[in-house]
Specification:
The protein folds into four domains: 69 residues, Histidine-containing Protein, Chain: A (2-Layer Sandwich), CATH 3.30.1340.30; 75 residues, SH3 Domains (SH3 type barrels, Roll); 68 residues, Roll (SH3 type barrels); 128 residues, endopeptidase domain like (from Nostoc punctiforme) (endopeptidase fold (from Nostoc punctiforme), Alpha-Beta Complex). It contains seven helices and 25 strands. The strands form seven sheets. It has a six-stranded antiparallel beta sheet. The protein has a five-stranded antiparallel beta sheet with strand order 9-8-7-4-10. The N and C termini lie far apart (63 Å).
């Protein structure tokens, strides 16, 4: 009787890639980067890194079933060297997330001041974080404040406020002629410690103190408990007309297409998925061929197909939508309109309003990283 032959290294490696893709189909929101080395030796080495212990276990069982003898050297995230400070808050008005730890790396997203984040790893002044929409990237440690779980809980119970104007400044005294402590943009969260006439005394997540006009701020309860309002978002969107496009941007300073619509809904206390291709998976499906069914606030998706979405816009009314492409501007889906862009192939329409609480559309008040009582 012949001896059973083990699968070749090349075959196992290819099968492992397929299995990892099945276990983690979206590498933007989970880490599963594993390789099998030296499979022709008596004991192979399974190495790499992952924040998915269940996926690692499934891969180990899969290899064992194939008769592969291996040593498990996979690095599990969050990394052990992080200690008890496994959380963080973004501290700048806008903090950048990059694909790799370095200023020259691609900008993949941004986090507004006060955004809570899970810390996964750190390396030479850079911290790997996951934002509340599950997006993963590397942030310069100057852009965040590391926290323990208890410290994050204290923040969730603090007297927090939301900045609801497009942009402004935190002053070192209650007056607009005072010196500037920091810039501030739409969507930033901070703690209020006292009132001073028409100003609020605030504290940023990294402990800086300053003053903001009361009229520019909303309390946590008012912001987090509101119902999404299309007309309010339209007014905000129009205030951003001409704002430059920035790949990876999702702030009032500059935004890409998905970052722009994400920000509009965030002003209503709603967290959307980060990228257009992700956003297109959630919400109520609207027949994209029936313009008469579209409502203000619907998300219009464009691309080669519904499975290959590359752009998103925020529907206004009468065939018009506002979006970030080059800059924030208004276009039309009506062919006879001068603002019609024939290159934009509409492939899907999703309705967020009415779908809050479903997967991919989360109220901040219900998100455990934001709220003490989700």
């Amino acid at each position: 009787m012949g001896v059973a032959q083990l699968p070749s290294y090349r075959a196992i490696a290819e099968e492992l890639k397929v299995l990892q893709k099945q276990l983690v189909p979206d590498a933007r929101v989970a880490i599963l980067d594993i390789v099998l080395k030296d499979t022709l030796q008596p004991a192979a080495v399974l190495s790499g890194e992952s924040d998915q212990p269940d996926a690692i276990a499934k891969i180990s069982n899969w290899l064992t079933e194939k008769g592969i003898v291996f040593t498990d050297s996979v690095r599990l995230l969050p990394a052990a060297h992080l200690g008890d400070k496994g959380w963080a808050l973004a501290t700048l008005s806008v903090s950048n997330l990059r694909a790799q730890p370095g200023d020259a790396s691609e900008l993949v997203s941004q986090a507004l001041m006060g955004t809570p984040m899970r810390v996964l790893d750190s390396r030479k002044g850079w911290v790997r974080v996951q934002t509340p929409d599950a997006y993963i990237g590397w942030m310069d440690d100057a852009g965040l404040q590391r926290l323990t779980a208890d410290e994050l809980d204290r923040w969730k119970g603090a007297n927090r406020y939301f900045y609801h104007e497009i942009s402004g400044f935190v002053y070192d005294a209650p007056g607009r002629n005072s010196d500037v402590v920091s810039d501030i943009v739409l969507g930033d969260l901070f703690e209020v410690t006292a009132e001073a006439g028409s100003f609020l005394q605030i504290k940023t997540p990294d402990g800086r103190s300053g003053y903001l006009p009361k009229s520019a701020c909303l309390s946590w309860n008012r912001w987090s408990q509101q119902q999404p309002d299309g007309q309010t978002m339209v007014r905000t969107a129009r205030q951003m007309m001409g704002t430059p496009y920035l790949w990876g941007g999702c702030s009032a300073k500059a935004a890409d297409c998905s970052g722009f619509v994400k920000l509009l809904y965030y002003t209503q206390g709603i967290i959307l998925a980060r990228d257009a291709s992700q956003q297109a998976q959630y919400g109520k499906v609207i027949d994209d061929t029936q313009i008469s069914l579209f409502q203000t606030g619907d998300l219009l998706f464009f691309g080669k197909s519904a499975q290959r979405v590359t752009h998103v816009g925020f529907y206004l009314t009468d065939g018009y939508f506002i979006h970030s492409s080059g800059k924030v501007h208004i276009s039309s889906i009506v062919p006879a309109d001068p603002k019609y862009v024939p290159e934009r192939n509409r492939v899907a329409v999703r309705r967020v309003v009415g779908a809050v609480g479903q997967k991919g559309i989360t109220r901040v008040a219900d998100h455990p990283w934001y709220s003490a009582n989700p």
